[in-house]
Specification:
Layout lengths: L2 E10 L6 E9 L3 E5 L7 E6 H4 E6 L17 E6 L4 E5 L3 H16 L2 E3 L3 E5 L7 H4 L14 E5 L7 H23 L5
Antiparallel strand pairs: 1-2, 1-7, 2-3, 3-4, 5-6, 6-7, 8-9, 9-10
């Protein structure tokens, strides 16, 4: 999967509220994965932004959170999840916190194109169209309250360039086969 953003962020643990530095990677499919270090061998956790994220807050919006020692409150970043939990992060600078917020929000709203021409999006009521109601069983693994829509591209849709190449290939094949049809039989 394509990488959207990566870098070091401080993460506050959920139990003891201690700050730990992790290497974070945001992928195009909406996975925010954090690792022990930048080698990305030991994964510490994952947040599925597309399915789990409700909101992203930065700076002064992060109430009741004390930043790590030596960091400003403006560097804070809180990912609010649909289940009511929060993941609190701290960037190296205020600009980096804003950049992470923008990247996470973009990943949250961008549809994912899957192999085979499928496009997954969210936000459409499942019963707004009869065909969409049939897709509900396929997404039982998703977070509650999340609606997914799959848009399949027409496999027979042809662009202008493809049409021109197809006509050219057909004409060349027809000309070649046509010359064989008119060739007298010598044997």
């Amino acid at each position: 999967m394509a990488l959207v953003k990566s870098g070091w962020l401080w993460r506050q643990s959920s139990i003891l509220r201690r700050w730990k530095r992790n290497w974070f990677v945001l992928y195009l499919d909406g996975s925010l994965v954090y690792y022990h270090d930048e080698t990305q061998r030991d994964m510490d956790g994952r947040i599925h932004i597309k399915y789990s994220c409700r909101d992203v807050r930065t700076g002064r919006e992060c109430r009741d959170v004390q930043p790590p020692e030596g960091k400003s409150r403006d560097c804070l970043l809180t990912v609010v999840l649909r289940d009511g939990s929060k993941t609190t992060l701290c960037a190296e600078s205020e600009d980096d916190a804003v950049a992470w917020k923008m990247a996470v929000l973009e990943a949250k709203s961008t549809p994912v194109r899957l192999p085979g021409g499928c496009l997954i999006s969210r936000g459409v009521p499942p019963h707004s169209h009869p065909a969409l109601a049939q897709l509900t069983p396929f997404f039982a693994f998703a977070a509650p309250g999340v609606t997914h829509v799959i848009v399949r591209e027409d496999p027979y849709r042809v662009s202008g360039d493809q049409m021109a190449l197809g006509l050219l290939a057909g004409a060349a094949t027809g000309a070649a086969l046509g010359s064989f049809m008119w060739m007298p039989c010598w044997f």
